[in-house]
Amino acid sequence: MVSKTPWLERHFDFGLPLSAFPLLLERLRGTPARLEDRVRRLEPSVLTKRLGETWSIQEIVGHLIQVEDLWEARLDDYLAGATQLRAATFEPGKVERAGFNQRPLRGLLYDFRLRRSQLVRRLEGLDAAVIERVATHPRLQRPMRLLDMMIFTVEHDDHHLARISELLLIAPAAARGAGHAAAGKILARGTNVLLRDRHPHDADSYVRWHTTGSWREYDAPWEQGPPLETEEQKEGLRRRFLHTCQEPVPKARLTAIIALPDGRPLGWVSRYGTGSPPIACKVGIDICEDEFLDRGLGTEALTLWIDYQFSDPALHRIALDTWSMNPRMVRVAHKLGFTPEGIEREQRQWQDAWLDLIHFGLLRREWEARRRNG
Predict the structure, then answer these.
(1) Contacts of 285 (CB under 8 A, 6+ apart)
(2) What is the CATH number of domain 7-176?
């Protein structure tokens, strides 16, 4: 295989005519689709694997998100008539510290698509005089038109896509998993928990959760029904659970198991109330293992789930409802930036007390701003 030239050693031919602008714009517009096609079917073990000190595939995606700030800033330089482009300021370890290996891939791909679409929209409206403006590149120390800056950007895209291809040639064929039945079982990874599809090994935990656990006291307990008591009841629930494990899963999951990094199941997250078109939904969460309550795991799991849901570009808002006797859920909602949107006072009576139904809402732009600001 022919090795590519390291990026910092590249030389560029900036002789393209102004008429190349529409072609370069299409290359910029098409990078998110090419990237998604390359990585979306890969196993998490392949996406997050590092070779020595080099970035993983998922970290390369993160770097592409980070460098969009530079392209936007340099576009600002051209628009302001600057004679010198600002320098790149990617200090060592910036990618690693960002924790891209712990973020859901779908969210990263959506972030990159969003950032690139912003850049393309700004470029689309420019006239020839702006596209021909010249400024000096600080590292190359040569004059570059805005058109040349577009060449530089698409070449940078291709450089990193080629690196992903190199890593895939190294990855074991069994782990690459394009179309493999196990690909996509893990939907998102965090530091302390992950979200994954249900598995037959979860059956015993699932049956136990419907027999005991304090979660049953807070998640609309009047809907839970009495705890399972007989072996016949437990076996019936186990069979129903195992049957659902054999059913085809939708591309966009409506539920997922919350698990520790070692796979031990802790509970679930859910999406419901989807309208048509699906511009809004509600989410729910239950940590069903009492020993793991009050450790921040629910907050982390719901963060992953919100990232996963907002990776659907059609989704505009997410709602969350809870009851006044569930202070944990109220705290999590506030912690994650949900806005209180109303209270239905004394909406239900339970165990000699009147309960309020509390409504929270979260808009896409609010979540994206929160994620950008860390």
Answers:
(1) 258, 267, 268, 269, 270, 298, 301, 302, 305, 329, 332
(2) 1.20.120.450
- Report how far residue 90's alpha carbon sits from residue 62's, in angstroms, rounded to the nearest whole number: 13
Q: Report d(CA 65, CA 46) in Å as an integer.
A: 20
Q: How far apart are CA 366 and CA 85, in angstroms?
A: 31
Which of the 8 DSSP states describes residue 12? Answer: -
All CATH 1.20.120.450 domain ranges of the chain, comma separated, are 7-176
Instruction: Give the pLDDT confidence of 203-254 residue by residue, as tens digits.
Output: 889 999 988 888 888 888 878 778 887 888 889 888 898 888 888 888 889 9
Among 358, 324, 325, smallest CA distance to 341 is for 358
The span from the CA of 172 to the CA of 181, in Å, is: 16
Global pTM reads 0.57
CB 323 within 8 A of CB 281: no
pLDDT tens digit sequence for 319-349: 999 999 999 999 999 999 999 999 999 999 9
Write out the residue limits of the CATH 3.40.630.30 domain(s) in the chain: 186-372
Second-level CATH architecture of 186-372: 3-Layer(aba) Sandwich (3.40)
DSSP codes of every residue in 310-345: HTSTT--EEEEEEETT-HHHHHHHHHTTPEEEEEEE
Q: How far apart are the first and last CA of the chain?
A: 40
CB 281 within 8 A of CB 315: yes
Strand partners, 189: 194
Q: How far apart are CA 98 and CA 336, in angstroms?
A: 19
| 52 Ramachandran zone, left/alpha/beta (phi>0; psi -120 to 50) | left
